[in-house]
């Protein structure tokens, strides 16, 4: 069995595995929209894998129209991966009509290739009689556009994940199952693979010992399939990040009705604003507003009182919305207070109280019967490992060293 035959078997098996994985994702309820987008992406990859596995003269002469489908499918990979990531990390995931623009390139390419699809089968077979020559006909242009399009969406996906990282530290006090480090690593590897593919295409007149062979034998595509399938398997076990809770209202959702009660706490800047300022997350017309000093002081005192008396940080999954509800203030005001007055993220703010409680307990009780796990949970950490990680991050020492 030669290398080509082995790759055909692997790609065909990958197509069947992709079909099963796509079905499992499609019927899974948590993260439903993101799962279904990923399911469609995996179906496209499975079909592409099948077409590459049987990319032979004999197969294409019997089914000539399929010879150009494999040119179009890769143009949906980038947009589908990006939209999957967007919906996975969205607070209220849904599709918007404007998002159809991501698929304009594939529609343009489809119309460009339309004469080929509608011509007679005899003409198509005659065109395919020289398979190598037919592959180069218009393929180089479409291939290069596709590669750069995928690169664009991979970079854009990394930017989206970076923005998400900033958002979760101002939303959650516990980041377990929310950081998506695994997804970011996969996107970086995909980016490296496609950069190598771009280099191989750009220097196609030169023989590059590793890149040329990877590209010639579709090994790069095999790696892409493995990585995307791995994303699929990880997503099957990914918990929903933003749980819906109708009891929690946000300022932007309730609009003017909710804002009227707190509008007296806002001040409008005099003259044009030259630097970013204002309360984050407010409706557009209020984004240049800031909180009055008296309001800041009032909310600051209320925050300190709640933290000292009710100790909400002991709730391991406390969110900024839940704390804002306890304080009877808009979430955006609380975020502004923690950011501007205390110079911290919500995650750091809550965990400093947890660390302080552990430190106080250890200082007062040199000998105690609590295990590290019990001590961590009593202070609001989900586990001993989480406590150790936060200890190291905020104090530079582990809990054991302390």
Automatic annotation (TrEMBL):
Keyword entries, A-Z: DNA-binding, Membrane, Transmembrane, Transmembrane helix
Highest taxon of the lineage: Bacteria
GO terms, molecular function: DNA-binding transcription factor activity; sequence-specific DNA binding
UniProt xrefs under InterPro entries: HTH_AraC (IPR018060)
Transmembrane regions listed in the UniProt entry: 6-27, 34-54, 66-84, 96-118, 141-158, 186-208, 214-233
A Pfam family the protein falls into: HTH_18
Every HTH araC/xylS-type domain range: 301-402
PANTHER family according to UniProt: ARAC-FAMILY TRANSCRIPTIONAL REGULATOR
Protein name in UniProt: AraC family transcriptional regulator
Natural source organism: Adhaeribacter swui
């Amino acid at each position: 069995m030669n290398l080509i035959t082995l790759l055909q078997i692997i790609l065909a098996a990958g197509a069947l595995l992709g079909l099963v994985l796509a079905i499992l994702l499609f019927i899974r309820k948590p993260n439903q929209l993101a799962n279904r987008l990923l399911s469609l992406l995996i179906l496209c990859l499975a079909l592409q894998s099948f077409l590459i596995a049987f990319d032979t003269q004999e197969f294409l002469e019997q089914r000539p129209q399929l010879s150009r489908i494999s040119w179009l499918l890769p143009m949906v990979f980038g947009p589908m991966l990006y939209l999957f990531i967007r919906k996975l990390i969205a607070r209220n995931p849904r599709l918007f009509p404007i998002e159809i623009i991501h698929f304009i390139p594939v529609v343009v390419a489809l119309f460009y290739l339309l004469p080929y699809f509608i011509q007679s089968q005899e003409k198509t077979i005659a065109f395919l009689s020289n398979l190598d020559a037919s592959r180069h006909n218009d393929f180089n242009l479409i291939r290069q556009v596709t590669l750069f399009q995928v690169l664009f969406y991979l970079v854009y996906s990394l930017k989206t994940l970076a923005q998400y990282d900033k958002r979760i530290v101002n939303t959650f006090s516990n980041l377990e199952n929310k950081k998506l480090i695994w997804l970011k690593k996969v996107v970086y590897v995909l980016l490296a693979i496609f950069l190598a593919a771009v280099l191989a295409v750009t220097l196609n007149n030169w023989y590059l010992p590793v890149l040329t062979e990877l590209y010639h034998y579709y090994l790069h595509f095999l790696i892409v399939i493995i990585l995307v399938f791995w994303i699929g398997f990880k997503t099957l076990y990914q918990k929903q990040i933003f749980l819906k809770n109708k009891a929690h209202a946000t300022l932007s959702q309730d609009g003017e009705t909710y804002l009227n009660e707190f509008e007296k706490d806002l001040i409008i800047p005099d003259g044009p604003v030259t630097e970013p300022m204002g309360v984050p997350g407010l409706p557009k017309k209020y984004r240049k507003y800031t909180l009055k000093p008296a309001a800041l002081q009032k909310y600051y005192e209320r925050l300190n009182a709640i933290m000292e008396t009710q100790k909400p940080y002991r709730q391991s999954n406390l969110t900024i919305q839940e704390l804002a509800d306890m304080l009877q203030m808009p979430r955006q005001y609380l975020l502004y207070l923690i950011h501007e007055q205390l110079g911290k993220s919500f995650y750091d703010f809550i965990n400093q109280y947890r660390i302080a409680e552990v430190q106080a307990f250890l200082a007062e009780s040199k000998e105690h019967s609590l295990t590290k796990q019990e001590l961590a949970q009593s202070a609001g950490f989900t586990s001993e490992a989480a406590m150790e990680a936060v200890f190291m991050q905020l104090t530079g020492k582990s809990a054991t060293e302390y």
